[in-house]
TrEMBL record:
<dbReference type="GO" id="GO:0015293">
    <property type="term" value="F:symporter activity"/>
</dbReference>
<feature type="transmembrane region" description="Helical">
    <location>
        <begin position="195"/>
        <end position="216"/>
    </location>
</feature>
<feature type="transmembrane region" description="Helical">
    <location>
        <begin position="463"/>
        <end position="483"/>
    </location>
</feature>
<feature type="transmembrane region" description="Helical">
    <location>
        <begin position="370"/>
        <end position="389"/>
    </location>
</feature>
<dbReference type="GO" id="GO:0006814">
    <property type="term" value="P:sodium ion transport"/>
</dbReference>
<dbReference type="InterPro" id="IPR038377">
    <property type="entry name" value="Na/Glc_symporter_sf"/>
</dbReference>
<dbReference type="InterPro" id="IPR001734">
    <property type="entry name" value="Na/solute_symporter"/>
</dbReference>
<keyword id="KW-0472">Membrane</keyword>
<keyword id="KW-0812">Transmembrane</keyword>
<keyword id="KW-0813">Transport</keyword>
<feature type="transmembrane region" description="Helical">
    <location>
        <begin position="276"/>
        <end position="297"/>
    </location>
</feature>
<dbReference type="Pfam" id="PF00474">
    <property type="entry name" value="SSF"/>
</dbReference>
<keyword id="KW-1003">Cell membrane</keyword>
<feature type="transmembrane region" description="Helical">
    <location>
        <begin position="78"/>
        <end position="97"/>
    </location>
</feature>
<keyword id="KW-0739">Sodium transport</keyword>
<keyword id="KW-1133">Transmembrane helix</keyword>
<dbReference type="InterPro" id="IPR050277">
    <property type="entry name" value="Sodium:Solute_Symporter"/>
</dbReference>
């Protein structure tokens, strides 16, 4: 790559990051010293900001790089998974879980999911279990963003900037930004980044189509080079696999700390209702063009080097260097808007659900907020070190984390809607399903009497779905057996959730 093009690309990236940092500094000047303002922006978020901060937070490296690269390798069917199934499923779950959490959080002042459930059942163990599970699965997903940043810069610069340097740079930026900004700054920049990403990816589609000779020429090339991509089911994945992915991703997203906390921040009920109504539209507007770019690259014969992602390579081939850098800046925005929210939410789980209950119950809000900032730096440093080992593809890591979070969803729904749920039922449902899922992730499959144990599928369906069913059965079954464990907190919780 020419030195002048490299300078232009790095300059565009640097300018974008400086703008984001300036927004963070402005937010810092308005953020109070108390933990609720730092973590939830004083529960004052309006419709546009809530919609776009949720939108930008979910548009991670998994979406912007992993998805198009998957489409490049296996066809565009994942548009159905991410763009249609998950767009609709998550909107429904946003109402079923998110709206009820908001009603409860407004009355009780909760900041985290673990705090809400721990208080509901009077159990520090449950609070710690929810926080521990959430932080465990957050680790690989933050690592995924750092891997995506490193791979993006490798692809954009043709290897002139090494993988580790890209990952290290984005890590340092994230730490500085989150420590400064808190949720108010994160939400503001997420809104800017969401609008920017949405616009730039459509401009990229138009530019690639024009440079490649138009839609007809691109379609002809795709039919000639990858004809299997033009028919549903022509790719590498079965309908069962895609449905399982759609379900686990949608349910997993609702339990992501950075998404679940956004269920608490809306200024009023109509803000939430407008947001989840508009959600499927925004998802389609971004996912369709991103996945089409990956599919078209396969048809056009774009060669993607090992360790790189398809989007920067495609843009380098069909658009000017400055525009390719601008789109990658948008992708970096996607990764940062996910990572900053993850780190912020993760630090709240650490301080609210582990430090306060078990270490220092008398800690004041200011001390908690500063401890959270230290936690951000430590967590991000740990994930950066892990990212250097690259323990899988972006899609593999993201899919595993989604499945882990999905195991939490049904016990939480039961607790929100069924007053007879007990402490032991929740511990059994969450703990049992997590053990089942972890065994399938980390223990190699083996055969007993001709039957495969701990395989990736059972009767062609992904093991993550069976874990979700197990979580439901254990939560309900153990609650029925231990119904006498329900205490007065059940009634208070139910009253809070019915507020309007």
């Amino acid at each position: 790559m020419a030195e002048s093009a490299l300078v232009v690309q790095l300059g565009v990236l640097g300018a974008y990051l400086l703008v984001a940092l300036a927004v963070g500094v402005a937010a810092y000047r308005l953020t109070g010293s108390d933990a609720e303002d730092y973590y939830l922006a004083g529960r004052s978020i309006g419709t546009v900001v809530l919609l776009f901060t949720t939108f930008a937070t979910l548009l991670s490296a998994f979406t912007f790089f992993g998805g198009p690269t998957l489409a490049y390798n296996a066809g565009p069917e994942w548009i159905l998974v991410m763009g249609v199934m998950d767009g609709l499923l998550f909107a429904i779950l946003w109402y079923a879980i998110g709206y009820r959490q908001w009603l409860i959080g407004r009355v009780e002042g909760y900041v985290t999911l673990g705090e809400m459930l721990g208080d509901r059942f009077g159990s520090r163990r449950l609070r710690a279990l929810v926080a521990g599970v959430s932080l465990f699965w957050l680790f690989p997903y933050v690592m995924l963003q750092q891997m995506g940043a490193g791979e993006a810069i490798v692809g954009l610069t043709g290897g002139a900037v090494p993988y580790w340097a890209g990952a290290a740079f984005i890590t340092l930026f994230m730490i500085g930004y989150v420590v400064l900004a808190g949720l108010r700054g994160v939400a503001w920049t997420d809104t800017i980044q969401g609008v920017f990403m949405l616009g730039i990816v459509w401009v990229a589609v138009g530019w690639v189509l024009t440079s490649a000779g138009g839609f007809g020429e691109v379609s002809t090339a795709l039919a000639r080079n990858r004809p299997e991509f033009l028919s549903l089911g022509g790719g590498l994945y079965s309908p069962q696999w895609m449905i399982a992915q759609a379900v686990t991703i949608a349910f997993g997203v609702t339990m992501f700390p950075q998404i679940n906390q956004r269920f608490f921040v809306a200024k009023e009920a109509r803000v939430l209702k407008r947001s989840f109504t508009l959600w499927p539209v925004l998802v389609l507007l971004l996912f369709v063009p991103a996945f089409l770019l990956g599919t078209w690259a396969a048809g056009l014969g774009v060669a993607v080097p090992e360790g790189a992602n398809v989007i920067p390579v495609l843009l380098n081939a069909y658009t000017p260097a400055w525009f390719a850098a601008l789109v990658i800046a948008g992708a970096m925005a996607a990764m940062m808007s996910s990572s900053d929210s993850m780190l912020l939410s993760g630090s709240s789980y650490l301080t609210r659900d582990l430090y306060r209950p078990f270490v220092n119950p008398d800690a004041d809000d200011e001390r908690e907020a500063w401890l959270g900032r230290i936690g951000v730096a430590a967590f991000a440093t740990g994930t950066f070190v892990a990212s250097l080992f690259r323990p899988g593809t972006l899609v593999e890591i993201g899919s595993t984390a989604f499945g882990g979070y999905a195991q939490l969803a049904l016990p939480v729904m039961v607790a929100l809607y069924w007053p007879e749920t007990t402490r032991r039922g929740m511990l059994a449902g969450i703990g049992g399903s997590q053990l089942f899922y972890l065994a399938h992730v980390f223990v190699p499959p083996f055969t007993v009497g001709g039957v495969t144990v701990l395989g990736s599928t059972y009767l062609t369906w992904d093991f993550a779905l069976y874990g979700m069913v197990l979580s439901l059965l254990l939560t309900v079954g153990v609650s029925l057996v231990t119904a006498s464990d329900a205490d007065e907190r059940t009634e208070r919780f139910a009253v809070g959730s019915g507020a309007d």
